[in-house]
Amino acid sequence: MAYIPQASLDNLKKYSYKGVDKSLLSQYVLNPFWNWFVTLWPLNVAPNTITLTGLSLVLMNFFTMLYYDLGYLAEKGGATGPPQWVYFTWAAGLFLYQSLDAIDGKQARRTGMAGPLGEMFDHGCDALNTTLEVILAARALNLGRSWWTVASQIATLANFYLTTWEEYHTGQLFLAAFSGPVEGILMIVAIYIISGIYGTEVWDTPILTFTKLDKIPFIAEHVQNVGLNEAFMAFGAIGLAFNILHSYANVRQASRAKGQPTVRPLLLLLPFVFSATLQVIWLSHPKWNHSAIIQSPLFVPFLCAWGLQFAHNVGRMILAHVTSTAFPIWDWMWIWSIIGVVDAQLPRILGRPPVIQSSYESTAVFVYMTLVISFLAYARFCTLVINDITNHLGIACFTVRKKDAEGNWRVAEKPAEKAKSS
């Protein structure tokens, strides 16, 4: 199918990025660093190349985790995670990702390449990074294969969905005083560093014991002494609630200014609720001659498939934003997930074993098929959208082009060539 209707292609030329960043840390600490960092990049380096470089660093971190986990799995049948020093590389990789993600827009303005393609590419990489960092952070927090990790996935994806939903309705990207792309990422960087110094077991330390508050009788009696990692999850839940209220306040204000209904946008949050519910029901299937997905090595590929489906969904939302088209509600990949859910829940529904996921081996095949199909669907989306945008606007994805005197896009000269011609 075509992702951009022919009648909406001209809307790409009308798009211009708008953003509001209220983070004091971003304005007074990070932005001066980013302004200097972007000057290190030659003007012939395309902004999307910088974005992809950042995502590549996160992928290296992710493959490092898989290397150690799968190596141990093959040898002993269980997973212990990477050695402590690896977490420092994760911290460095994520910090560099944040920096490169911040300067790609600055590079776009330096080279005159700012536009809808960069917006799509940037958000696409961010969507992929969201799931990858959930898995890595869960490993660093020693959460393992648990419902805490699932809760982290839901909360993190919900925050990203909210931001995209808000941008679609308001026309601009809002970053609050405490936002995921700034303070949230730096918190995860700090988690990696702490895990590198003390090991992941430190996060199992009861929070009252860690803070010495258990020595106060009233607190020790009335406050549950949960682990630091569980306390961090509670903090994330509070942050999600705050972001929901903040995002809706902005959407409500924008809708009122346009004379549009203020409640209807809330209904467009239901697609995320529906998709997340599907994944949770699938994971909560009763055991049938084998362990549940959440307790097996299939957990990570399952989360990755979920993340790719989410990236496809929010990618269509951003595309609708830059092309001024209708908000996407249905995703055909949900049909595949529904099949997986119904099959896994057959013991509860009909009291009979699953047809497809009747054994660990067959479940593994189905989960990996889900991963492959999700990847191919998202790759197809990216390919078609990039081709449509580049062909219609006459630009390139990874080549810097500038407008000449006649207003046509031309490949920018490299610094050496420019000096030679002059």
Automatic annotation (TrEMBL):
InterPro entries with a match to the protein in the record: CDP-OH_P_trans (IPR000462), CDP-OH_PTrfase_TM_dom (IPR043130), CDP_ALCOHOL_P_TRANSF_CS (IPR048254), CHOPT (IPR014472)
Protein's cellular compartments: Membrane
Keywords for this protein: Membrane, Transferase, Transmembrane, Transmembrane helix
Keyword S-adenosyl-L-methionine: no
One Pfam family per UniProt: CDP-OH_P_transf
Chain segments annotated as transmembrane: 173-198, 231-251, 263-282, 288-306, 318-339, 359-379
Statement: the UniProt record of this protein carries the keyword Cell membrane: no
Family: Belongs to the CDP-alcohol phosphatidyltransferase class-I family.
Name this protein carries in UniProt: Choline/ethanolaminephosphotransferase
Source species: Hohenbuehelia grisea
